[in-house]
Amino acid sequence: MLMPKSHRIALLFNANKIFDREVIEGIAAYLSSTRSSWDLFLEEDFRLRLPGIEDWQGDGVIADFDDPAVAAALARSRIPVVAVGGSYENVNAYPAGVPYVATDNFKLIKLAYEHLIEAGLRHFALFSLPEAQENRWAQERENAFRSLMRRDRMEAEVFRGQGTSAPSWDEAVQQQINWLHSLPKPCGIIAVTDARARQLMQACMIAGIEVPEQVALIGIDNDPLARMLTRIPLSSVIQGAQEMGRAAAHLLDQMLHGARLANTRILVPPAGINVLASSKHEPAKHPHVMRARHFIRQYACQGIKTGQVADYVGISRSSLKSYFRQELGCSVHDEILRFRLDAAIAILERGDCNLANVALSCGFTSSQYMHSVFKRELGCTPRAYQDQALQGQAEPAPDPQFQHADS
């Protein structure tokens, strides 16, 4: 049996970014499902370094063209190149003569916007990034937001703020707080990335702005690291980055076998939304309930009790219990327990873990108590819930559709 010819392929991405990492995972998924044999070049630390790339002797390249330096370095490449990056409203902004696989920036923003509308919000804003060549994708998301606001006859409230920098961090946070105070409440805010959303949520915490009662927040990327660094679980639009990787690998595979695909463009829509606490806006009738739920949302997993919640709000335990019964139809303890249960579910869905550690990290007094709460609320044990969740994740993903999506 003849072995398929091996090709030397360079992947030019910064895998410390969740988007780039998932594109690479999509490329790997394509290779594992085909007979293609590629020897892959990546930097040992998965960083993107361009010096000398023009002298690399290989058969093909898949690269992140959101970085203008990458596009410039590969402009005169004599080997097949497939570009991956953000979509553009102006078709002339795409690189000429290069097949391009794009995340649909308009649909990313539209999905987040529609989610906030469904949450009952009427005021909206966008937290973006400073204007720069390397942030062109963020400006495209701004364009999408402005377009949606014009369509719905609303003013587009966009704040770019400063980039991440240690010396200017305090100033940047204060600017974010000033902007947050200037917005009408309640307000739904879309951040152009989860990293940007995490910063804004931190500013809300510092300013005492309740999330999601006053500000409902949603990011883009579904980055697990960003979620781990937020006190309140962060909602996020899931990009179809793995689908993009599979599509890019498929295009390059065709080019390696003689196909001419210059100027081919594939637009990949978002895969959905991971809806968590930060965007679950439920208007509260009483400010004491709103403040209490804000405190519970942050500290439920740290073993807080009803008395501590009442102390934070500044009223007696009996008064707080009465407000909760009137407005939510449950006790303060029930609300704390609900957030602990949600936190435990999120951990169990990520994979194998020690149940005693899960119980401890989510504020349950013991794994036995967590077991009884699962049985009472969900009708199954924590381990059975995890097995069911992992079986659902193991179902085969649909084959990629190599075509332009509807805009």
Task: Describe this entry's structure for a reader.
It comes from Massilia violaceinigra. InterPro entries: Homeodomain-like_sf, HTH_AraC, LacI/GalR-like_sensor, Peripla_BP_I, XylR_PBP1. Keywords: DNA-binding, Transcription, Transcription regulation. GO terms for molecular function: DNA-binding transcription factor activity; transcription cis-regulatory region binding. The protein is globular and about 75 Å long. Helix 1 crosses helix 8 (241-256). It starts with 5 loop residues before the first strand and ends in a 14-residue tail after the last helix. By secondary structure, the protein is of the alpha/beta class. A 6-stranded parallel beta sheet has the order 2-1-3-4-5-11. It has helices at residues 18-32, 68-73, 105-118, 136-151, 169-182, 194-207, 224-228, 241-256, 287-299, 306-313, 317-328, 332-350, 355-361, 367-378, 382-393, and strands at residues 6-12, 37-41, 60-64, 81-86, 100-103, 124-127, 158-159, 187-191, 215-220, 235-238, 265-268, 272-274. It folds into 3 domains: 6-103 and 241-269, 3-Layer(aba) Sandwich (Rossmann fold), CATH 3.40.50; 105-239 and 274-279, Response regulator (Rossmann fold, 3-Layer(aba) Sandwich), CATH 3.40.50.2300; 287-391, Arc Repressor Mutant, subunit A (Orthogonal Bundle). Helix content is 45%, strand content 14%.
